[in-house]
Design brief:
This protein is of the alpha+beta class and 142 residues long. It has helices at 42-59, 76-88, 94-139, and strands at 4-13, 16-25, 28-37. The longest helix has 46 residues, at 94-139. It is elongated, with a radius of gyration of 25 Å. The model has no long low-confidence stretch (mean pLDDT 82).
């Protein structure tokens, strides 16, 4: 049975406070980024977790397969040191950044395709108007 973990990392990235949400389900990882703006109060973070966290993760697209760490008995002191290091480290994991980068690239491609389609439709519209005017001039109507 695959385990699922959700991690929220809040850090300062000049000039804003940023939250990176990671969801690991088995070997798949999803990541999303949220800008808090000014330093978030604990109540604001709690409200974000309760109301907007899952909706933000649902918008994120599943990304690359993550490396699975070996699970076994852990020394409690080592676990405490690793937790302290994780709290002290700045930003999200590289896997989370990779997931966000892939999502940004996908959104960029979708926007480019939409823009191309809109530009082509506008060009077709202008061409149709030009043809209509040319036919009207040819017929002698103003």
């Amino acid at each position: 049975m695959a385990t699922s973990t959700i991690t929220l990392t809040v850090y300062f990235e000049d000039p804003f406070w940023v939250g990176v949400v990671e969801r690991c389900e088995g070997e798949r990882i999803q990541a999303a980024r949220h800008l808090f703006g000014a330093e978030p109060l604990p109540g604001e973070v709690l409200e974000f977790v309760q109301r907007r966290l899952l909706a933000l993760l649902d918008q994120a697209t599943p990304a690359a397969v993550a490396g699975v760490a070996a699970v076994g008995p852990r020394n409690p002191k080592r676990a405490a040191r690793e937790a302290a290091r994780a709290l002290a480290s700045r930003g999200g994991s590289t896997q989370a950044h990779e997931a966000m980068r892939l999502q940004i690239e996908q959104n960029k491609c979708e926007r480019a395709a939409d823009t191309r389609a809109e530009r082509a439709a506008a060009e077709d519209y202008r061409r149709a108007i030009k043809l209509r005017k040319a036919k009207a001039r040819h017929r002698g109507h103003a």
